[in-house]
Amino acid sequence: MTTRLIDESLFENPDDREHDDGDAPRLVGARCSACHTVVFPRQDSCPRCAEGVMSKQVLPVRGQVWSWTLQAFPPKPPYRPPAEGYRPYHVGYVDLGEVLVEARLAVPREEIRIGLPVRLTLVPAYRHDDGTEVVTFAFRPERDGEL
User: Whole-prediction pTM value?
Assistant: First the structure.
């Protein structure tokens, strides 16, 4: 089966498909040269000072759940439900140290909590009309002893 990333600009080395245990390629944001603000996704100007040059900033793969909620109803387009239909899922903010990233949380209800250690992963988003599986980034619980 063919897979592709939902948006290659979100990732460093998007063509590197060698990932251990479902881990994703690293997310890439931007850092301001003047005030050092980090943003995700990348943008051309700094939202804090508008003075610096924004340069590529590879983000950590590990973080902590900062806040979360249940996405109990289908989002508006361009969201595309999976073939088996919409199923509620968790979304939230993940604290990666210098930046909060809004993301899907691939965490069972009984495990999810603020402060939960999580790790970047890839999850199916939808299947394209040509059969290609389109994947997006999410965060899953970090396992004990995981590097």
Answer: 0.88
